[in-house]
Amino acid sequence: MLPRKSIIPEEFGLPGLVSRMPRKPVFRDRVNKARFIAKNGSCNLAHKNIREQGRFLQDVFTTLVDLKWRFTLVIFTTTFVSSWLLFAMTWWLVAFGHGDLYTKRQNGVHCVTDVKSFTSAFLFSIEVQVTIGFGGRMITEQCPIAITVLILQNIVGLIINAVMLGCIFMKTAQSNRRAETLIFSRQAVIAVRNNNLCFMIRIGDLRKSMIIGATVRLQVVRKTTTPEGEVIPIHQIDVHTESAVSSNSLFLLAPLIICHVIDKSSPLYDLSAMELQCSDLEVIVILEGVVETTGITTQARTSYIAEEIQWGHRFVPIVTEEEGVYSVDYSKFGNTVRVATPLCSARELDEKPSILIQTLQKSELSQQNSLRKRNSMRRNNSMRKGTGTSGSLRRNNSGLVSPKVQFFTPNDAGQNLNAVT
Q1: CATH 3.30.56.10 fits 178-352, yes or no
Q2: How much is the pTM?
Q3: Domain 59-172 falls in which CATH fold?
Q4: Where in the numbering of this chain does the Inward rectifier potassium channel C-terminal domain appear (predicted)?
Q5: Do the Cβ atoms of 178 and 248 come closer than 8 Å?
Q6: 290: which residues sit within 8 A by CB, 6+ positions away?
Q7: Opening angle at CA 277, ends 276 and 283, nearest 5
Q8: Which residues have C-beta within 8 Å of that of residue 400, sequence separation ≥ 6?
Q9: Angle at 24 between CA 18 and CA 30, to 5 degrees
Q10: N- or C-end of the chain: fewer Cβ atoms within 10 A?
Q11: Where do the structural domains in the chain lie, given as residue ranges?
Q12: Cβ atoms within 10 Å of 187's Cβ, excluding its own
């Protein structure tokens, strides 16, 4: 038997409809790439196979400052205890060579009084280097070598104190502690500002003490391949900002919005909204300045990947004037609002300026339509309320209708009843 044909024509069937539907361009999935700079500013970089380890010992002070606190404290304690033990052994040898350990001499003949064992020599070493001086043990003028050892231990002790205490002070007053109060918005936005497509972030300072000479630098890090076939895994491209062009530094009194105009020199010039989500670029933001209270240069860093860049959004204002004082609401620091923004790239906007005009006109029409809908809804609600009240008044007044009144009039043929209302 022949198969029975379907009642629905083939062109209106599901395969036919699917084949005629317009297909969106398919972009490749974004490769999951490790961040170069974490959100807290730490560098995601590991150094391996370093053969010249001796270079770290050439800069001992910086190496000690860069170490973690537990290693610094261990080195601090070990250095002092080792120096005390070393000079305790030296004092014990001096006493042993002079014969103070096994013979009883008159006062003033011993090199060091009351040094009769290694324990007493160790206590005397601590007293000399730390300048405690309990008074039980003291050096005499009978041994010139003991005087030489005393001078040598004082010099070595001062050097150790200067290096170790300076290292502790520098670790305590490190500039990255001040950078903890310099904050960045969690998201970056791309929107139209002054008829240009712009990349924007928001920065702020939580402390009242200002950052002097604050500067902001933006870099785009991405994997690129040169025309010669060379692969650059971390290609850093500098990005200019409006603040860098107009002035040398920022006056970071209140939170500021850093704006980068996406022009022909920008690495974001050829990226549209959909292509941005598929790209593997990373925008690094570096904020530098001098701490007002300490005079130490500090640096705060963060980065934004494609998922953290919102296309068609704008930061909400957070600075208001209240009773003659400007107030900053940090609860809205990272809040954004959706605005009309073309989804095409900045290059397409430069080639076809009408796209921006059409987008703005559509947004204006949509705003007007939404405003009309709101007004019509308000009118309908008010009319419903009005009809509801009039209907209730009618229902309430229905009992007040006057009854029919009957008048009787005599006729020649008889009496007829005429009801007159």
Answers
A1: no
A2: 0.65
A3: Helix Hairpins (1.10.287)
A4: 182-352
A5: no
A6: 211, 212, 213, 296, 297, 298
A7: 60
A8: none
A9: 130
A10: N
A11: 59-172, 178-352
A12: 17
Q: What is the SS3 string spanning the chain? A: CCCCCCCCCHHHCHHHHHHHCCCCCCCCCCCCCCCCECCCCCECCCCCCCCCCHHHHHCHHHHHHHCCHHHHHHHHHHHHHHHHHHHHHHHHHHHHHHCCCCCCCCCCCCCECCCCCHHHHHHHHHHHHHCCCCCCCCECCCCHHHHHHHHHHHHHHHHHHHHHHHHHHHHHCCHHHHHHHEEECCCEEEEEECCEEEEEEEEEECCCCCEEEEEEEEEEEEEEECCCCCEEEEEEEEECCHHHHHCCCECCCCCEEEEEECCCCCCCCCCCHHHHHHCCCEEEEEEEEEECCCCCEEEEEEEEEHHHEEECEEECCCEEEECCEEEECHHHCCCEEECCCCCCCHHHHHHCCHHHHHHHHHHHHHHHHHHHHHHHHHHHHHHHHHHHHHHHHHHHHHHHCCCCEEEEEECCCCEEEEEEC
Q: What single-letter amino acid sits at 150?
A: L
Contact 187, 202 (CB under 8 A): no
Backbone angles phi, psi at 253, to 5 degrees: -80, -40
Structure tokens at 6: 């379907």
- Edge-to-edge strands, sheet with 297-305: 231-239, 211-225, 282-291, 297-305
Residue pair 249/214 in contact by the 8 Å Cβ criterion: yes
Beta carbons of 179 and 252 less than 8 angstroms apart? no
The answer to whether the Cα torsion of 371, 342, 241, 239 is positive or negative is positive
Tokens for 319, please give them: 């600075």
